[in-house]
What does this fold into?
Amino acid sequence: MSLAGSSFLWSVRGVAALGLSALTMTGEIGTGYLVAAWGFWSFSWAMDRFPERQDTLRRYETAIVIALIGVFLFDFFIKRNTFFVALSHFLLLFQMFKLAGRKTRSDAMQIFLLGFFQLLAACTLSVNAWHAILLLLLIPSATAALFWNYVEQESEKAQMSIPPAALRPFRRLTWGMCLSAIPINLALTLSVFIFFPRLKLNFSLPGFDTGRTGYIDQVNLLQSGNLSNDNSTVLWLAFPSEQDRQAWNGYLRGTTLDFFDGRQWNASKTESLTRFLADSNGVFTLSRPGPGFKPLHQMITLINTSGSTLFAAGLPIQVVASLQFVQREKSGCLHWNVPWRRPLRYQVLSDIRTSFKETAFNRTPFLELPSLPLERTAALTRSITGRRKGAAAAQAIENYLRIHMQYSTELGSPAPLNPIEDFLFVKHRGSCGSFASAMALMLRLHGIPSRIVAGYYKGEWNEHAGQVLIRERDAHAWVEAYVNGEGWVPFDPTPRATFEGNESDIWRSIEQYWDYLGFKWNKLVVEYDLYAQIKALDSVRDTSEKLNNRVAQWWEKLTSSKKLRSSKPNHRWWRRSFFWSLILPLFFWVFTRRHKSGSSAEDAAVRRYRRLLLQLAKKGMPKGSAETGWEFARRVVARWPDQSEIVMPATGNYYRARFASTHGKVNIL
Amino acid sequence: MRKESSHITLLSLPGRWYRWLVMTRPLRFTRFGTLYILFALGVGAAAINTGNNLLYLILGILLGLIVVSGFLSDSALWGIHSEWFPQGSCYAGRPVPFEIRLSKGWFPSIALEVTPRWSGMAGGSRLVFWIPSRGVASFQHTVNPLRRGWLSLESVRYASRFPFGLFEKSHRESREEKWLVYPAVKRLPSASALSTGTDRADRTAEKSGLGSVPFSLRDYRRGDSARRIHWKSTAKTGRLLVNEMEEECEPGEFLYVSHWPEHLNAEEQESLISFTASLAFTLHENRCPVGLNAPGIYLPPENSRENLHRVLSYLALVDFSDVTPAESGGSRRKDGNGIDVLARWRKEPHVARR
It folds into this structure.
């Protein structure tokens, strides 16, 4: 294979790898597809050793493409995958077919385009910070691929390959182009990114809208195996002041679950959601603050928007978000229901009193018990609570669970028919869901209305970002009990110390810095919208005004100083020398360049002659292309005898300058 | 050494700015480039519709590649200089191979299409695959001039799709080079070329030389042969005088054209010119000195290539409307001998007229 051919193939493979990497990082593509695609990518060079088999594959190309289109339609309409997921599957399969087959120039170009489309699809599926690196690598890869495609194309046209003497210069040229493309491309990309208008028209196309999946709207006690530590980022939580951060108790409420069937907790189907619209300032006012209102401001950047829950501490009173509407449960939890594919930034003003009452509270749903044998649980509850009632009883249950049960993410073998009694009397260990479920059930058995709250707890403070980072591993479940006279009071029966976990300092600081970079990527790139654009332009304007003022002040200082006032000639001399120090080198450079090309007098003669021709042409006497200079001069003089004193000498000078003789150089052999 | 052209000032700094800002550089989209632009527009529309900032980044990369392509294509296209050297003399109706040497500046050139524009003639294009940086590449280009006269190269167009094949950029360099195309010549049979009945031996060179016929008398100089002494004149004058002999004249032919007949149509005119040129060419090939006595020119016979070219040059540029008669006296040559081209041409139509 020629240098151009092999270089082209490798650069194309590079772009294909970028596309595959991007799709892999979205986490939305089936593992089977990705494994197969990577396999084909890794071993496509080996397949090139069997050209006969590749030719066989090529013979069935049309049938294979039709089959792949069928797979895409099946994926999209029958399996009801989203458009871009189905498209990504199709692109992966097509790319595998192309990588396996014989690679002509057009085949290689198709692999390149498929890789590019994969990158595009990945950008619509996720906004991971890794995309920054992939897009940066795309610049030199695409430059090399397009260049080698061009060389191959021209080689085919000219029916010749790169001469051996030119191999090294070609390689150097490619490297030079790829490296020089990076800064130019980056500069233009940033300009387009910053200044291109963020109109966000949101025209919807059929099949492109996606439904929302619910966010952990259940606590399932039937899980087996181990709970893995998912470190993916859920949200960033910022407070306007350190006092607000200290006032926060660490809990972010997500959703409340009040229906327990003995195996899992779900939100009650009778629960109605109240829809709120924003006012003219974009503020959703959910309720009025009651007596004893304890405000807490939070600014939340929700990264993982796969659910439809707006997390907040305490009871949200007001929300500021760029949503059309928000829905609120009776418990105060917030949701939304529009397609959202990028981080959502919103602000919440919450009331973080320890308890809050409900008006017209209906206890019945929160006292329902599952149809399971619960005698042992009831007996245990009686033994724990004794004669205590209300908050004291709840406190006793909470303490009992904290002391006598162990937190563990190892769920073991499949749970039995009665997971609560299995947790309380057999295993004595479980996850936060087990603790919360057990406590909620025991409270109900004791006649105290209770529900489970699913949300997040605590997270970690990131010094670089100055915000709290909440990860999926911080997901937590706790209990709210309705205590007479107080309202809903939160209780957390899960033991804290083992639940929080330990990590080494070095790894933690690396992880924190990487999280900070991801935060910056989200803030500066993913969330860059029209307002940010206007703000950026305003800041550019402000900076330029400041700079202008500074320069003016400096100049003022310089010109108004006594020394300069008293010695005016020095001032002028300074100005003059500054001016000449700029102009002289430029003039010298231009002068030497001009003189490198030949005598300036000769050039001047040529230029004068050309100007003369232009003027004569304007007057209606253009010089014919086959006419010599002297023939033309005689023709001009014949028409305008008074011009002979101008035309003849100019023609003579021209001939002297060009041909070193007055009669001109005639190429006769 | 590179030939400096008059527009070298374009490469100096002000010229570069002028070139970048003002001069038009014709641009033509290739098929791939059109698809690329449409694709970029699609990505832009998707970015504006969805507000997905990553799509804006990809749009920026696509546009950035176009800008990079623009910079590089400019660098590959400018700074090209060509020199055209015909390989041999140019005759009408005969292909003329030109050797073209392309030199380049600091940036190399890949797949450059060179298209010359000749006056009154179609010129084919040629793809030059590689011109190294500050190097030279040569190639052959054949031109078939149909008519005698000036073959002028009006301009040369350089076009390239470097570096990505998205656009074809071109640049036209105006030239002022001309080459003289001689009339079409044919090798005539010697019998028809040479005149009959001409006594060549009677012709004299009218100058002293190494012949056997006395030409003039001069004073004796040391080294002169004693046999040359002209005793009669020596006795008369009292000093030694020697015979100076006349140069023996080489046999040569005068081509005589009394006038160029105006009544002939264009084809006949060209036929006559071609016949005249063919005569001169054939005589020269037979080592016969050729002279020409025609309206506006008198060339004594000479057996030199330069003389032949003078004859052919005259014939290449002769204008039938020029009514200047031939040398006065209406004689064919000064001593009355020569080939009457007109008469010969009329007599031998199968030779004269194709």
